[in-house]
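INFO worker-7 received task bundle
INFO bundle size: 2
INFO processing item 0
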Amino acid sequence: MKETMFLDKDQSATQAHMVLTGGGTGTSVLARGIAEGMPDIDLTVIVAQADDGGSTRILREVLSDPSTPDQPLNFPAVGDPRKVTAALSPNRTAAAISEKRFGPADTHATLRSAIGEMFEAVTSGERAINATWAAMQLDDAEALTHSLPSEEGQTRIDGHNLGNLVLAAMTKNSGSIVTATRNYGRLLQLNNNHRVIPVTDTPHTLYLKDGDEVIQGQSLIDHHYVKNPEEAELWIDPHATVHPDARIALEDADLLVASPGSLWGSQGAVMCVNGVRDAIQNMKPGSSTVAIANLVQQEGTIGMDVSAYAQKLARYTGREIDYVVYNNAPEALPADVTPVIYKPERHHVGHRVAIGAPLAAPEALVYDANDKIKQGRSSAVTDPHAVVTVLREEVLGQSTTDTEARRAA
């Protein structure tokens, strides 16, 4: 069997370049775990741009160019890059302020108070950033709220968080979600070895063909019961090409990790952008791919086992998945969910090495009470520290043959 090894013998794991793909909660939670558990590794997170729900949808609708009515959501999606950037921020005070959502009782005074707290958090201490620049970014976010709609009994900021408002204002000013995300990382003081890159600068909408039915929009796709997930087709419109920064990061990756999350709205939304597949196929010699399987079956993946998930990802990437990591302790999950199962008889379907480990976090995920789209989300969450342990101990620096031999022993 061909050996897969992405590290030279004289290269330490901390020198490796890891690229994490996806979007949403699964990606941000794992990104935080990697930042904590592997602080010296060179980490790039490439995030999807298909989000069209909640606060992000409102911002996309309000800030889209009305001259293109055939493409109503022509403003980039800020939610996923914002969430992952906050997860990677070493300034946990600023990250917490940026992530807290405003509720129906919150007023403009509440917003001003949050802006003041954020300004203090990022302009004080050893990592303080330029106060004038920080003030400009935060003032622009406040100005943007005047264009937001309000309904009876609600304020304009209801359901939004400061991070979305800041990143939306940065995107509007720069004309680029990639540039804006880089600036947002500066605001939240990301370490030099951590970066977040939206997969493309081109706003688009996600589509799924399930038999004779076509579902439009990520938020609907993620809650659609897919009758035949292994045959379903995914695409975006309008045409979007991978951003050069994202392409270079993929090609330079030693290890590509597909984070847990929606097969369609997270991984698929990244992989179906034009040029991503080619970039993955052009990864440096000796690189490896890893897929972190979900803990539970989602509406779009009912009936899919670990191998089927890996096989679908392999079709997107154009190369076999080297390692698939799955939860081997389904009994730890809540009783009201259906776990994703690994079937030994389907070993090697879509992947080369399967690594089972207890991946369920000991505590259920708690969503913000003001999150408008928290309904329908699973409270079961992958333990990022368990995943980091697998990546560090069983993937980094280990060859495929070594891992298989150890598991067979």
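INFO item 0 finished
INFO processing item 1
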Amino acid sequence: MKITTVLVTLLLSVAASALEVGDVAPCADLQHLNVVSAQTTYSACAADQGKEGQPVLIEFFQTTCHYCQLNLPVLKALADETANGLTVRQVGIDRNPELLVKYVADNAGQLPGSVAVDSLRVLTKLYKVTGTPEMYVIGKDNKIIYKHVGSLDQDAVLEIKKLVQPTR
């Protein structure tokens, strides 16, 4: 009984500290991988990444995650459909960066945006990521406007589209 109480308390404290909608999005410098696997540093601060103030979707993923693989075509379609209203960034948290280099090469042309390597889990810790896939949409004020854990369903995609539609 005591062990169960301790585990429940621990899980609640972890969940309570997770980033939520309305929180300011953390920033960190990561290594960016492009399709040819050249590396350059870029800031994972959403305010630095969006095109002219666009919201940014950041997906934390692992190359071995089944649900992350299912999200790939959904994210690509979302990125294509909202190109004028949303910038998509993926953050790979595999401990072996070579897996991410292979992922980028294997999925050339299918990626929704740039892929960053966070094998030391710097940004992952700042975002308090609890599993993959986990994604955040960051508004132009650098605050989280949407959070989703798990594979993207039709309702999640519609919600994201609604949030990022440019005002006319």
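INFO item 1 finished
INFO post-check item 1: The helical segments are 2-17, 46-49, 66-81, 97-106, 122-127, 154-164.
INFO post-check item 1: The longest strand covers residues 56-61.
INFO worker-7 idle
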